[in-house]
Amino acid sequence: MDVPAALSALAPRLSPGATRATNARRLSGGASQETWTFDLDDGTPLILRRRPTGGAMTAAALPLSTEAALQAAVAPRGAPVPEVVWVCEPADGLGEAYVMRRLNGETLGKRIVRDEAFAVVRTGLAQRCGEVLAAIHATPLDGLPPLTTSDAASELARYETIYRQSGAQRPVFEAAFRWLADRAPPLERPVLVHGDFRNGNLMISPETGLVGVLDWELAHLGDPAEDLGWICVNSWRFGEWRRPVGGFGDYQDLLDGHAAAGGAPVSLDRLLFWQALGSLKWGIMCLMMYASFASGADRSIERAMIGRRASETEIDLVLLMEQSA
Amino acid sequence: MITHPTAAELAEALACVETGPPGDARAVFLARVADNARATLARQTDLGPTAEATAVARLRGLLEVDGDFKALNAELCARLTDGRLAALDPAVLAHLRASVMDQIAIDQPGYSGLAALQASR
Predict the structure, then answer these.
(1) 8 Å CB contact of A175 and B80
(2) Predicted pLDDT at A31
(3) Are B26 and B32 in contact (CB under 8 A)?
(4) Three-state DSSP class for A222?
(5) Helices B90-107 and A171-181, interaxial angle, to 10°?
(6) What is the mean pLDDT of residues A39-53?
(7) What's the CA gap between B103 and B40, in Å, rounded?
(8) Which residue of B4, B26, B77 is in closest CB contact with A174?
(9) Residue A163 bridge partners (DSSP)
(10) A152, A208, A280, B98: which one has the fewest Cβ atoms less than 10 Å from its Cβ?
(11) Whole-angstrom Cα distance, residue B18 to residue B69?
């Protein structure tokens, strides 16, 4: 498929003054979706997000039109998201895809947690994340596209099934499944959960902080503490393990921001439950991605090596279990 | 001792790595992953046998049965699953702590969770 040509043909409908697309370039990263950056000849900076032709591993992902609808639904609540410009139709020749405004900022966690350029915005970032999550969680559910609902117990069960199918025998995961199953909090009132709110999916400006929450493909209805715990998983702290919120802030900053913006109170215990479940889920996902190597579906060294990241979640889980013992 | 992937699978994947066209971002990325894989295999050769032997010794003490690593590890998993051993049992946690520290030393010695776990005692 000639994506740049299709984007040029679409240009007049993306902006009244545009006649063609320029500088179209596929960005690396994004295992299940393609991301293209491009400009219109009237200067409009845009991003195309599309499902690769014949893309695998997308069974759990939302339709891209749903992602676009969610971004449009949370924006009026004050959650920063890229403005959706166009949801593609079959005639556009781009497959399942949508176009949004391109934001300026950084998504690489390593830079966000360490670079001097982000030192100023880092100080308020955990609180801001809490506020933004409260805004997302306050989105009215009426009128949202169809979404699944999951709670702690169902998430645990889902991942335990995947783990059993993997054939792996990992005592830390066995222990963590039992430990968490005994503590799974009931779902009191389902809210819109982003589902992947962490470094990598947060666009951070060195001047203005959090400017965009990206990658809505795992959004669902569930426990607001799920999002609060996920951003605290050590795997996204990029070495800054003493700052539990994304490597840049403290638990209380995140919880305070969430409460100050009207979020239903979440206890640190509940957050830590979801953080631990987050580590466990990421560990199982590493095994799943390795499985595509083992099955022969993808024999790349990348898919083989990702399995060796499961142990990072095991060491984090051991610490969390010790601290709760 | 380590599976998903085993050392043999890593070596097999490494043998299939091809060099891409110059400047190709994906090829550069995969070359970096391949370097990591070679370093992981080297660490596993150095540290793996001792890690497995000490794990077997710990498991024999914890489970009070005999066997090789695979059998003992499977027995520990079975006892955790059916509740004969509790996740937060101090003896279980002590074994898990020692095991994951040995494995992270092979898989990802720079991972910050190792420093966090060491600092917690």
Answers:
(1) yes
(2) 60
(3) no
(4) strand
(5) 130
(6) 94
(7) 11
(8) B77
(9) none
(10) A208
(11) 35
Spatial contact of A90 and A73, defined as CB atoms under 8 Å apart: no
- A315: Cα within 13 Å, side-chain hemisphere: 30
B88: left (phi over 0), alpha (psi -120 to 50) or beta: alpha
- Helix, strand, or coil here: A210? strand
Mean per-residue pLDDT, A23-32: 78
| DSSP class per residue in A32-67 | SSEEEEEEETTS-EEEEEEPPTT--S-TTSPPHHHH
Taking CB atoms and an 8 Å cutoff, what residues of chain B touch A323? 120
Q: What type of residue is B36? A: N
3-class secondary structure, A215? coil
Q: What angle do CA A112, A117, A118 make, to 5 degrees?
A: 40
A218-256 as b/e: b if 16+ CB within 10 A: bbbbbbbbbbbbbbbbbbbbbbbbebbbbbbbebebbbe
- What's the rounded Cα separation, in Å, for the pair B90 and B41? 32
Task: Share the mean pLDDT of chain B.
Answer: 95
Q: Is there a contact between B77 and A305 if contact means CB atoms under 8 Å apart?
A: no
Q: Do B4 and A239 touch (CB under 8 A)?
A: no
Tokens 């991605």 appear where? A289
Residues 6 or more apart whose Cβ sits within 8 Å of residue A236: A109, A198, A199, A200, A246, A247
Q: What is the pLDDT of residue A58?
A: 47
ipTM (interface predicted TM): 0.96
Token readout for A1 is 């498929």
pLDDT, average across residues A110-120: 98
Contacts of A318 in chain B (CB under 8 A): 93, 96-97, 100, 117
* Residues in CB range of B98: below 8 A, 6 or more apart: B54, B55, B58
CA angle B34, B39, B40 (to 5 degrees): 95
Closest partner residue to B100 (CB to CB) among A166, A314, A324 is A314
